[in-house]
Amino acid sequence: MSNEPKCPECSSANSYHDGNLWVCPDCNFEWDQTKTSDASEAEEETNTVRDAHGNILNNGDSVTVLKELKVKGSSSGIKAGTKVKGIRIIESDNGHNISCKIDGIGSMYLKSEFVRKA
Q1: Which CATH superfamily, name and number, covers 63-117?
Q2: What are the extents of the domains in the chain?
Q3: DSSP letter at 21?
Q4: Domain 1-47 has what CATH class?
Q5: Cα-only R_g, the chain
Q6: pLDDT of the chain along its 118 residues, tens only?
Q7: DSSP string, 61-91
């Protein structure tokens, strides 16, 4: 009984196998276990952060800024070709998915579409 999956709808552990489907008696939800595992793999694939050229970025990577970026509250910006070391990947709802420190400017967030892996 320990290998039965939890219901993806209500997270109940009271699921059982009925033919080709899994059934939750608590919420009457039916699902195909193979499709849910494929969906979770696809979700993991969409959660990866990629640079402008499609390379996967990881924590601690070094990146190079591809275009000049303006910085709010500063008279200077980030010039194209600036190398940023030791990035951190973060989850953000505004598109800024890289946290880093840039020499001469300080801590800031960048969008992965404006950098390439160095």
Answers
A1: SH3 Domains (2.30.30.40)
A2: 1-47, 63-117
A3: E
A4: mainly beta
A5: 22
A6: 457 788 888 888 888 888 888 888 888 888 887 765 555 555 555 578 999 999 999 999 999 999 999 988 888 899 999 999 999 999 887 889 999 999 888 999 999 999 999 8
A7: --EEE-S-B--TT-SS-BPTT-EE-S-EE--
Residue tagged 């959660």 (tokens): 47
Q: Which pTM value belongs to this model?
A: 0.60
CA 29 to chain centre: 28
5: which residues sit within 8 A by CB, 6+ positions away? 15, 22, 33, 36
Residue 9 tokens, joined? 């709808």
Tokens representing residue 104 in the block: 């001469």
Determine contact, residues 58/84, Cβ cutoff 8 Å. Answer: no
Q: Identify the residue whose tokens are 């880093």.
A: 100
Residue identified by tokens 């509250």 is 73
